[in-house]
Amino acid sequence: MRVLIIGGTGFAGRYLTAELLRQGDEVWVAGRSTLSESAGSTQIEGESVPSFACDVTDRASVSNALAHSRPEAVALLAGIASPPIAQK
Length: 88
Prior knowledge:
Distance between the termini: 38 Å
Strand order of the largest sheet: 3-4-2-1-5
Helix content: 25-40%
Strand content: 25-35%
Largest sheet: 5 strands, mixed
Radius of gyration: 12 Å
Shape: globular
Structural class: alpha/beta
């Protein structure tokens, strides 16, 4: 299955990506920490995974990630992991 993980370059996203790859799924990741808006790749557990920069508050950014990856499933793991920062 082709899966897009939004927030895939973050803490939880890396674990989900690794598990889906172990199961044989085709995984694409989108995250704020990805440097380029165009397709690139991110190394996760020694695997090169297609990646996109994606800001979940920007409709065009999310649309770009969806259009390029054409996923069968999407996991949304984007968020702020630090409670003090998230409470601001």
